[in-house]
Specification:
Outer membrane efflux proteins (OEP), elongated, about 450 residues
């Protein structure tokens, strides 16, 4: 029985196919051309992300509102300059200048809860926006991690498809010699060529996916157009940690989840605004000091005066009642949003928890068994291929590579699930997750 020998021209052709360029631009901001690590990708994502900047802008606006609320009782200093003329009885035709200048300082001593309620409302608003900012940052970090893993999977898929395509090409090229020798028919050669073309098409699609996933990662890291070339596969040691009981984690999530905490603080802020609006019906007590100068002196005029002013609003129409009614409606909406958010987060938390359990046990075990099985099948196919008993070496290799991809994909999904679980509990990404793979 004749053994297969690959001619030099086949080796050269296969090598040219394997050497097809990936067409990836170098990462201009990487240090020293080193592979991009997950920690570096996350650090790049934290700087200047649009979602984070929008959350920071909301926080800054809330801080400004708090300053406005706290300034309600600040001392005010006003200058009045008046140019006028007037006449006195009995001669009403003799108009004389009656000009004046006034410097008035006023300080609110007590407003019966107006400013304190408004300031508390603004403070809770600031806390809510800060919690939302944390949520935006963690959500973006999770997106960067997912994009990072997508690139690694695309690279693994490309390598696998490229190897399989090379084998299909060698098999097809060998088939042309067999056709010339009368060992196979033209139909059989056409089938070999078709399988090679299918493998080539899949390899090219994988090559395009490499570039697409890198572009998405570059965008997530706020470096559009600067595509990373080499990525370092993280170790993901934290995937092996023991998952605590669900009944233990759930109360911690409900207490520390940034989104729930933000909604709770927005609800309290709305309730404090209602208190502030209600206080508008109450009086205010101000202290005032005034210094004046007049062009026409009079016995009833004081150049310097000081006093206390009590201002009590007796009737304001429906303006204030309408503001209170509107805020009550907004408060009820905030309460409903909080209740719905708790239900949604509890459901999402349960699904993520169960996903981790599945990936750590059945998913990991099944993927490992598939790897072991396909390794055995591949070894057998290689032996039969060498003896020309079977020609399914490419299929066996594809199955083996796919099994390896499945096992690694399981670990990436597990790492993302753990990261989502921790984000829901208000915790940052674990340090062990970003160590390189060894």
């Amino acid at each position: 029985m004749m053994r297969i020998s690959i001619a030099p021209r086949r080796l050269i052709a296969a090598g040219l196919i394997l050497a097809a360029p990936v067409l990836i631009a170098p990462l201009a901001w990487a240090e020293g051309g080193k592979p991009l690590t997950l920690s570096a990708a996350l650090a790049a994502a934290d700087a200047g992300n649009p979602d984070t900047r929008m959350a920071e802008a909301d926080r800054d606006a809330a801080l400004a509102e708090r300053d406005i609320a706290s300034s309600r009782t600040d001392t005010t200093l006003n200058f009045n300059g008046i140019l006028r003329s007037g006449a006195q009885k009995p001669n009403m035709e003799n108009f004389l200048p009656d000009n004046s200048v006034q410097l008035i300082a006023r300080k609110t001593l007590y407003d019966f809860g107006r400013s304190s309620a408004a300031e508390e409302a603004a403070g809770y608003e600031v806390s809510a926006r800060e919690s939302e900012m944390v949520t935006a940052k963690e959500r973006h970090r999770l997106d960067v991690m997912a994009r990072f893993f997508d690139v690694l999977m695309a690279d693994m898929q490309y390598t696998a498809d490229n190897e399989i395509m090379s084998i299909r090409y060698v098999t097809f090229d060998h088939g042309r010699d067999n056709l010339a020798a009368g060992k196979i028919s033209a139909v059989e050669l056409s089938e070999l060529e078709s399988r090679f073309q299918d493998a080539l098409l899949k390899r090219n699609a994988s090559q395009q996916q490499q570039r697409i996933t890198r572009a998405l990662l570059a965008n997530a890291m706020n470096h559009p157009g600067e595509l990373p070339e080499d990525l370092e596969d993280p170790k993901l040691e934290s995937n092996n940690r023991k998952l605590p009981e669900y009944t233990v984690l759930l109360p911690e999530m409900l207490a520390n989840n940034p989104r729930i905490r933000a909604q709770q603080e927005l609800l309290v802020a709305s309730q404090k605004r209602i208190d502030s609006y209600k206080a508008d019906r109450r009086p205010t007590l101000d202290a005032e000091v005034q210094a004046s100068d007049f062009s026409r002196p009079a016995l009833t005029r004081d150049n310097v005066s000081a006093g206390l002013i009590l201002n009590w609003p007796i009737w304001q129409g429906i303006r204030n009642d309408s503001r209170i009614a509107r805020e009550y409606a907004l408060s009820n909406k905030s309460q409903a949003a909080l209740d719905k958010l708790k239900m949604d987060m509890t459901q999402s938390f349960l699904e993520t928890y169960l996903q981790i359990e599945q990936l750590q046990t059945v998913g990991r075990s099944s993927a490992q068994k598939r790897v072991e099985q396909n390794d055995l099948v591949l070894e057998r196919s290689r032996g039969l291929y060498e003896m020309e008993l079977r020609s399914d070496l490419g299929t066996s290799m594809a199955d083996t590579v796919e099994a390896g991809l499945r096992a690694r994909r399981n670990e990436y999904q597990l790492a993302l699930a753990f990261a989502r679980l921790e984000a829901m509990m208000g915790k940052p990404l674990v340090a062990e997750m970003i160590k390189k793979k060894q």
